[in-house]
Design a protein that fits this description.
322 residues, alpha/beta, 3-stranded parallel beta sheet, 10 strands
Amino acid sequence: MASQHFHTVVMYPRPHPDPICALFLLREFGEEQFPGIKEARIEYWNKLPDGKTADELEAQGYILVDLGGGKFDHHHGSHGPKTDCASTLVAKHLGVDQKPELRKLLQYVKRDDLEGKGIVSKDLIDRAFGLSALIMNLNRDYPEHPDFVVETVSRIFLAHYHEEYRRKVIMPQEWAYLQACGRAKRVDFTKGDQRYHVVFVESDSKTIVGFLRALKTVQANMVVQRTASGHTNIITNQNKQFIDLRGLIAGLRKAEAGRRQVDISTMDAERLSMPGRMPGVPQWYFDTAAKTLQNGGAAAAGIEPTALSLLDIEHIMSESPF
């Protein structure tokens, strides 16, 4: 097999999620077993050429996806009960079916193909803009150009895979590293009868906050992220109990003004906790819609990093009501 060159992938003319995903998996993970697959062209057949079998075509450099009774045709009786789709057959053949970063994608295409439930929501807007419906629309708009449909959807699958790889592989590794080198910790605060978990992390990653808010072993109510520039943002987990940030933003603004020797003595509690940016202490922006306190946000251009240390912020949190 190693010396063989695969030059063509074949699928039915009307692409749907399963064969497109199977092609994506072959391109992304199949080069070792199927040399040439990354650059292979795609052809669209309704049936095999007369007198040809899937095995004969494979020996000639063709990979058949979901047709012809080959190894990746889940309609073929040799695969037993229909518990696999073409994508899961490919994933198992390539040994990638247990990769956590592929779990959602494989579940989606299997559910779509075997159960006809690519989108389970009954909401009409969700269904109209669900991927399965959009692929159907693309096929109707471009019936003579299946390549366009395949390449468009493949890019969506690739973007999903990259994000899942970040969340399932890269971010757990980074989280473990940050804890090991003392650049991350969880602090618990008790406010009244409520207990809040706040994670302090020093990282430039744009993904780590979302990762930490979703991490069940952390259960963060808030994440305080400090970047290498010193800019610091405080993001709440909106899936958890409501957090009133007015007391915290007032405390941060008071402390910031004190460090910078800015007189805000005329500012009352209402002004100190005002949404947006407060005159005199522009370093902290209170975003009431996103429920975040931003010292620069995702793009910190033009905003000075806070003069407060992470220990200062931790102390202010301990003193402020949530």
